[in-house]
Structures are given as structure tokens and as C-alpha cells.
Amino acid sequence: MSGEQHRPQGPGGANKPSGPSPGGFGFGPGKGGPGGMGMPVQKAKNFKGTLNRLLGYLKPHKNALIIVFVTAILSTVFSILGPKIMGKATTKLFEGMMGLMNGVPGASIDFTYIADILLLLAGLYVISALFGYIQQYVMAGVAQKTVYHLRKDVNEKLERLPLKYYDSRTHGEILSRAVNDVDNISSTLQQSLTQFITSIVTLIGVIVMMLTISPLMTLITIITLPLSFIAIKAIAGKSQTYFKGQQAALGEMNGHVEEMYTGHAVVKAFGHERKSIAKFDEVNARLYESGWRAQFVSGIIMPIMGLIGNIGYVFVSVAGGLLVLHGRITIGDVQAFISYSRQFTQPITQTAQIANIIQSTIASAERVFELMDEDEEVPEAANPTPIVTAAGAANLRKPSSDALVPQGNVRFEHVKFGYKEDAPLITDMSINVTSGQTIAIVGPTGAGKTTLINLLMRFYELSGGRITIDGVDITQLKRGDLRSLFGMVLQDTWLFNGTIRDNIAYGRAGATEEEIVQAARAAYADHFIRTLPEGYDTVLNEEASNISQGQKQLLTIARAILADPAILILDEATSSVDTRTEVHIQRAMNALMEGRTSFVIAHRLSTIRDADLILVMNQGTVIEQGSHEELLAQGGFYADLYESQFSGRKTVMTDAI
Q1: Residue 440 neighbours by CB under 8 Å, 6+ apart
Q2: Both 434 and 343 in a single domain?
Q3: Is the pTM of this model over 0.85?
């Protein structure tokens, strides 16, 4: 099938989910400034259900996750032991120095003991790093395998979704769920999950180590926490307002820039450059104001946290000094405790940040699972009728007696259809098309012309009646086989980034070079292709803007010719090209239509005078049918439509004269 499709929007059109935010307290580089305040967090509607479903993807990697968990604990524990052991070396050094200063007989600094401590510390840190390496290595595999299967399921789901799903949503929304949301899950599994485990273990380990040194100093450290929470919460609430304003202004500016860029020729043609610049300056000023406030407010959180932390260190140091004087703890323990107290706030802030990231990730997972829960296409027949075509014969080793050999006879039998159940569009349509006929479909916008084609190719399911091809109900054919019977040439051409040869060969898998060239010659495209510097190896850019509109159309016709379909669907492909190019395209289309059943969606009635049958549609119903002369003789809707077009052209010509 040489099916034309609309080009999807690029990632730029996708709405990327918001990043982590200070729902409580969010920190970390790149999260909105020094303080790490992020955007307002996106929350899931059903957190628990979505989390359980996401964990289902992790379940096959249970053993690997146990290894990650154990290595994360061991890596953190060995790291936490460091300050305590280092304190012993400090105490030994302090005792030796004090002994020497006081002239104690036999006093000396036990460098052997200190060296042993340092070697032990080095060993601990190496072991900690080794476990950390194992943890990251295993988790990377788990995360990528999980996301691999998730992406695979999403892609397979997208292939099973009916056309109505794509028609009812923007390409950007679908891309956002299939790409951005899955990437969000991937980064969280890879980084945030292990950070979360490490932060929890660090927090518990640090509290235990502080308690073993001094319960009193631990209490002093914990008392300072409420001050931090109050400060963070106040700043978070203030900065969230500014970040929302920043996002709104940023979205408005991006939209304005994109609009002005894509329509720059029109802007210049109507002399609106100054107006466009003035609009940009106004939005940019608002973005600057809200962005400056957001970054400033979020940026002061670390200095405030530092101030509160330093106040706590002062109290801890004073209390530690008094305890040392009373001989209740050693100087090394005070040093170790100060080190632990500095580590104490870090896992708390990290945990708060990761909690927000996880909240946003679960929201992304929920959006992905919503896509995966969408209603799929109606299942194909259990025993589908095989077909024998030039393209499909290779798939049948031995055609059975009941295989469909397509001739191109099409029947619509009392077809009923509506995009919504309570709003029927087609109530009772019956059409009989014999092989080789050219059927023109005309009517005003919204009459149902494209709907008829969508039903014929089973992009939508009927509400009643049936459609047959050569006597076989289309529901008894595999969708792939059914659509392989059709070739499409639409007004809106679709060519992908690749060579001209590849674009033509898209019409049929395994086509030879000779067949590709023959198809190009039949479409009157071979001459212009050979005039290009690289010929058939010319690479078309993303929008295929390095060739003309007419040349694009000839390539799509060549692709349809190569597909050698039994039935053609043509949407008037010559309306946007010049008269000379139109002649070439019309010749190519006539060659393509020869001997094939053709459905032509017509906009200019002058191009369908020679059609074998003209279907006049209005409000989803075929209200007239017959040849051009018969319909004119009836003096009905078609005659009025034809006369209005003819008169309109005549008036334009008269005015021009």
C-alpha cells in the first residue's frame, strides 16, 4: 500500500511534563537556581494504583533490585563509618600532642596507630566506592531493560489503536506520552531510585552514629530541623507563584516565536515586523521579571539553610566542648559528630527533592498507562480470508481455493456510521462499484467524502451494514492485507527524510532498482530526478522542501504505481500546482488509473467529467449518483454545484478582462 499519511509534529510540539518542584522542599542543581526550586510538581490521580502497576515492570528484575538495595546499604554504611574512625585518629593525635606539651614522660604521637587508621579508612572508602559502582551498574541495566519493555509495549499499543484515537488528540500530546513521559520514568529509575535508597540509609545511619557519640548533641541537632522546615516551606510557597508566572510567560514567548518564525514571510509581507518585535519585548520583559523573582527567591534558600545549619553547629560545638572538658567524650568524637551533623541535613533535602521527582514520575507513568488502557481496534477475524496480489503473493506459499484474487469490485450495503453513537453521520448508504470503474466523490465540506474512504480502508468500524471487496466482507480480511489492496495519492504529500529511491521503494518491499525506475518513468518523474545532482540518491530533507510541490506529487504517484494496487484512492492532487505541472501529474494519474478501480475525491468538478460514476454526498448521505451528463440533466444538487463553480470562474475571467 502506498498509503499517504500526515507528518507528525516534532518533539518541539510535545508538552514536556513539569520537572520536580518544591511541593515541600526541593533542592539540587538545575532545579530552578541555586536553591534548586523546581516547577510546580505534577501529581498523579491514582498514586498507589499507578505505582503498583509500574512496580509490575520491575518485578522480573527482583533479584537485581535486591543486589542494588544491598550494595546501596553497604556502600553507604562503609562511607558513614569514616568520620567515626577518623575521630579516633584525631583523638590519638590530640592526646599525643597534649602529652608532649605537658611534658608527660614517655609521651609521643603514635604515628603507627594513625597510619593504620588512615589505611583502614582508605580501605573502607575503596570498598564503599566498589559497592557504589556495582549498585550503579546493576541499576543501569534494570532501568534500561524496564524502560525498553515499557517503550516496546507503548509502541505496540500505538500500532493497535484505531484512527479515531489519533484524530481526537494532537500529535504533540501523543509524542509527550510516548517519549517525554517514558524518558521521565527512565531517568527516575536510573538516578532517583538509588539516591532515595542511599538518602534513607544515610539518614538512619547518621542518626545512629550521632546517638552513639552523644544523645544530647543529637537532640540539639534535631531541634534545629523545624527552623529549616519552616523557612523552606515559606520560600517554597512564594517561589511557586513566581515559577508559575515564569512558565506561563515562557510558554507565551515560545508560542509567539514559533508563530512568527513559521509565518515570517506573511509578517514581512504585511509589514508587521515592529508589531511582532513589540509583542516579543513585552512578553520577554514579563518573563525576565517573573524569572528574576523566581530565581532570587529560590536562590536564598541555601544561604538560609546554611545560616540555620551554622547556628546548629555553634550549639553543637559549645555542647561538645563542655562535654570534652567534663571528660564525657573525646575531641575526636566532637569532630566526628560535627561531620555527621553536616551530613544530617543533606539526605533530608535530597529525600524531599526525590519525593517530588517520584511524584512527577508516577504522574508520567499514569499518563503512559492511560494510553495503554485506550480501546484498541476491533480484533481481526479468527480465520481471515487470504489474498493473492502482486505484493501479497509472496506471503502465500500455496494459495488456497478460497483465497481472494482482487478484481476491484466494491459494494457498500446499507452502511451506517457515526463518529459518536448519538450523532449518526451516514444512515443508509448503498453503492455498487464494478472493477475498473472511476468513481468520483463530490460534495461540500463535511459531507462525508473522507469518511467514506476511511470506512473503505477500515480505519473506522461500521455502526451497521457491511462493505465487501469482490464479495468478501472487509472484516474477514486482515487489516494489513486489506490496506495492501489500496494505493493512495493525496493532496497533502508525505515523503520522509531519505533518498528519492527509498521514498519510491516505500510503495513495495523488496522492489528492484529496475522496478523503481520503471515506476518513476510511468509517473513522468524520471526526467526531473535525473536532472538532480545526485539523481535517485538525492536525499530529501525533513520537509522535502528541496524539491517542488509538483515533484513531490510525482514521487507519490510513482510510489503508488510501484505498489501496483487493485484499488486507487485519489484526493485531487493538482490543486496546488501550476498548469504545466498539472498536465504532467494528470498524465501520470491517468496511467496509474488505467484498468484499476479508482475513487477520486474531487474539489474541482471540471476534472471528473469522464468519471464512470459520480457520487454526490451531503450530510453523510449519497443524495445523487450517475454520470456527469446524467446529473446535469437532473438539475439537482450536482447541477447547482457545477453551475456555481463554472459561473464563478466565468465571472473571474470577465473581471480580469
Answers
A1: 600, 602, 608, 611, 613, 614, 615
A2: no
A3: no
